[in-house]
Write a structure and sequence with these properties.
The protein is mainly alpha-helical. It has one domain. It contains 4 helices and no strands. Helix 2 packs antiparallel against helix 3 and helix 3 packs antiparallel against helix 4. The longest helix is centred in the first third of the chain and has 22 residues.
Length: 95
């Protein structure tokens, strides 16, 4: 049995809500606007220490790129996913 504290539960819910809100925003962006968001996130990652907000934002943006690629070019998406898994081992957790 897994026991979760109220504090951890609330933090997890807050994270889920932030991901859902960001995901809804990213869904309406054009591909160029999505690239601009990714560029802004990269700039932030270079300027300040990584925190949970930046981590959520980065993972959500990467997830959106993968989803769009899977629709537009499944072969390219599969190639990129396999390359990232070999290099970093983390992309599968984003899908």
């Amino acid at each position: 049995m897994n026991i979760v504290t109220i504090k951890k539960f609330k933090a997890h819910k807050k994270t889920q809500l932030a991901q859902q809100e960001l995901s809804g925003y990213l869904d309406v962006l054009s591909f160029n606007e999505l690239i601009s968001e990714a560029t802004a996130a990269i700039s932030e990652l270079k300027k300040r220490p990584v925190n949970s907000e930046l981590t959520i934002r980065s993972k959500t943006i990467v997830s959106h790129f993968i989803k769009r690629l899977q629709i537009d070019s499944p072969e390219m998406a599969n190639f990129l996913i396999s390359e990232q898994v070999q290099e970093n081992g983390f992309i599968g957790a984003l899908l």
